[in-house]
Amino acid sequence: MASGRTHDIVNLLVLPPAVYYLQPSDFIAFTGGYLVGTFFLTPDNDIYLSKPNKRWNILRIMWYPYTKVFKHRGVSHIPIYGTVFKIIYLSVIFFLILFLLKYFLDYFYPDKQLITLSFHNLKDFVSSPFVLSFFIGIVLAEIVHIFTDIIYSTIKKFLPKRRKKSR
Length: 167
Known about the structure:
Elements: H1 4-20, H2 27-39, H3 51-54, H4 64-69, H5 81-108, H6 122-126, H7 129-158
């Protein structure tokens, strides 16, 4: 398996040719999604002490349950499915925090409506071209990561094993 640094370098090298074929309107969303997919939402989020999880700093704790449910090289290493599961997982956490925050604010300030939750425009938001380009960027970064793992593992099988030096 390639190191985190190798994945970062390979993913960043693939970005310019991938961006070359985009429409100007898709550039920012796709590039943003690709960078998020390269540095924060990788197939290695299923390893708690992975480099991408460490980048989350204190928020890394939210990946702990994910690492217990999904084993390494399992669902998170399947293109598109891995991305969808991670986005659903993060969305559930986000909405739980939002609902808890709303509950506590309503409890302590019953006379004020500090947070209003409305999901009327959620379908329009999810189906917008910006969100689609962002999602495609994350998926492409994930695919590059998986291919890097496959190529690295294949090359490693054919290389002679190094002997440890005896002292």
